[in-house]
Amino acid sequence: MVCLGMEPDHNHINGDLAHGFENMVCVRCRDGFSMQDQMVNSSGEVWHSECFVCAQCFEPFPDGIYFEYEGRKYCEHDFHVLFSPCCGKCNEFIVGRVIKAMNASWHPACFCCEICNKQLADVGFLRNAGRALCRECNEREKAAGHGRYVCHKCHAMIDDGQHIKFRGDSFHPYHFKCKRCSVELTTASREVNGELYCLRCHDTMGIPICGACHRPIEERVIAALGKHWHVEHFVCSVCEKPFLGHRHYERKGLPYCEQHFHKLFGNLCFRCGDPCCGEVFQALQKTWCVKCFACSFCDKKLDQKTKFYEFDMKPTCKRCYDRFPTELKKRISESLKDRDVENQRRSMSPGPK
Amino acid sequence: MPKDKKKEEVTEVEHVDRNISSFSQISHLIDAEIITRLSLSHNKLTVVPPNIADLISLQSLNLWNNQIEELPPSISSLPKLRILNVGMNKLTKLPKGFGSFSELEILDLTYNNLSERSLPGNFFFMQTLRALYLGDNDFEMLPGDVENLTNLQILVLRENDLLTLPKELGKLTRLRELHIQGNRLAMIPPELGNLELVGSKQVLRLEHNPFIPRIQDQFDENGAAGVWAHIRTDDYRYFFGRQEPSSTPVPPKRNKEKKVSRKGIQQA
């Protein structure tokens, strides 16, 4: 227990105890007293005057004021150093009334609203996002902060759009450093496998991003069309079936399965209807497998060297053309003549307006 | 002797220009179950027997330049037939249910005596058809049902007697060849402007039609591409919508007396 004491009046003590002081001993040094010694008596115990000092600094008590704690007496300074609470605001010792709040001690004058600075010791306070506020300021903050994120670390409001998400909670980005380069993070940071990285480190770490879903790829990566893909997201642009390692075809930046590529881009054989692979014949705005290229009218095989005619944009062997009825051949040659004349005339006239 | 002497394992039979007048002359060479191709062009066949349907593996049947006047209805039940060429014959009509082929992709009926009246009701319901050759026939109009040929890429109507085209043709978005030269067309429905027929992989033949001046001028100046650009304009769409069907005199049909498909056919 602490008790504040005053050094007793020497004369009064000496007078009181004058008749039996030869039997007394000093509480501190355990020596007896001679007639010349000054004695100090306090609460029924006696000291040499020079032994009645602070238990910490061994100096006499200034103005005779001492503080007692657990049987030892301290000067005011040392007592405060050892045992007094410190104010959470001004860091000075608190003597007298101590306000205990927000897990700290305060001078009554130091415990103020963090927004309007009003003293809270007598009017009471409200805790708001880790701050002590007066009733009025708390109401205002609550209204303003509606719908905003609260930082999971400092409990303060986060300005709109300035939060980052980490393990499912919201934070001010400046509470974190990049796991790799230790730079203080901004909102442009990324969480990968439960760690936070600045955007630059994230991008150079080579964690591929799926070209379809725009999420990081942590399992098997498909590299195609200059992008990375989740295996299950690299699909034919038409049927949306994943290629799963099968061959794909590219056209204008889009991937297609074999069937749909040929279906869309006309490399199906005109005769058999299957995709043409390897060597093909291309003529009359059509494509044929080598084995399928034949006269349309007698099915005779044609090859690169065979001369053939065109009839309704179909390949026609010489024998079949020769066997066309005379009147048909006449019409064909007339229309060919007309077409030549047309082409010539058009190539000579100025181009389309 | 023909190389197809051995019946076993012969899947392709080719007897072109052999003076054959009846299927019975070659039936002994055919294993009906396995034959995939039968080419009998340039012969003298007049009849296709109904048992043609027994050739259950047949994928390609070429009867170009014979004298066939009628096909059996059973021909449409050939389950694997993908290519049928009956051009340069004397067909005046097609059998009932002709459109019930399940796999037919290329149908060549060029140079016959067919018209819109020759077609059975299901003709335009061949979903698998990629190419339809009807050049050198007698069509004066084309039924709007043509819109059901959803896979059609090639349509040849060269040198018929067509006076109009159905606007439904504009729904055949896969079409990349359209041959309508040598008909009696004065106008083209603006809906056909939906079709991508101008380009290096496309074919658009429009010549020899009695087009109205604004189309003919475009054709003379900028060719088929110019015509297609013009029918896509709002101006033409408005103009087309205001035309009376009978506002222009009907041009005469071409003289077809010399067509060989006519010979020996009773004219209606």
From TrEMBL, chain A:
GO CC annotation terms, alphabetical: adherens junction; basal plasma membrane; focal adhesion; M band; nucleoplasm; striated muscle dense body
The keyword Metal-binding is assigned to this record: yes
Keyword Acyltransferase included in the entry's annotation: no
UniProt cross-references to PROSITE patterns, sorted A to Z: LIM_DOMAIN_1, LIM_DOMAIN_2
Swiss-Prot/TrEMBL keywords: Cell junction, LIM domain, Metal-binding, Repeat, Zinc
Protein name: LIM domain-containing protein
Bilayer-spanning residue ranges: none
GO molecular function ontology, one term from the record: myosin binding
Annotated GO biological process: cell-cell adhesion; cell-cell junction organization; mitochondrion organization; muscle cell cellular homeostasis; muscle organ development; positive regulation of integrin-mediated signaling pathway; positive regulation of locomotion; positive regulation of sarcomere organization
Classification via Pfam families: LIM
Domain of life of the organism encoding this protein: Eukaryota
Domain LIM zinc-binding: 24-85, 87-144, 208-267, 268-327
Record localization: Cell junction
InterPro entries listed in its UniProt record: LIMS1/2-like_LIM1 (IPR047944), PINCH-1-4-like (IPR017351), PINCH-1/2-like (IPR047946), Znf_LIM (IPR001781)
Lineage, top ranks: Eukaryota, Metazoa, Ecdysozoa, Nematoda, Chromadorea
TrEMBL record, chain B:
UniProt KW tRNA processing keyword: no
Protein name per Swiss-Prot or TrEMBL: Disease resistance R13L4/SHOC-2-like LRR domain-containing protein
Entry-linked InterPro entries: Leu-rich_rpt, Leu-rich_rpt_typical-subtyp, LRR_dom_sf, LRR_domain-containing, LRR_R13L4/SHOC2-like
Pfam families named among the record's database cross-references: LRR_14 (PF23598), LRR_8 (PF13855)
Keyword Repeat in record: yes
Family matches, as PANTHER family: PTHR48051, RAS SUPPRESSOR PROTEIN 1
Region (Disordered) location: 242-268
Matches recorded under SUPFAM superfamilies: L domain-like
PROSITE patterns in the record: LRR
Originating species: Caenorhabditis remanei (Caenorhabditis vulgaris)
Superkingdom in the source lineage: Eukaryota
Domain Disease resistance R13L4/SHOC-2-like LRR positions: 38-111
Alphabetically ordered keywords of this record: Leucine-rich repeat, Repeat
GO cellular component, as recorded: cytoplasm
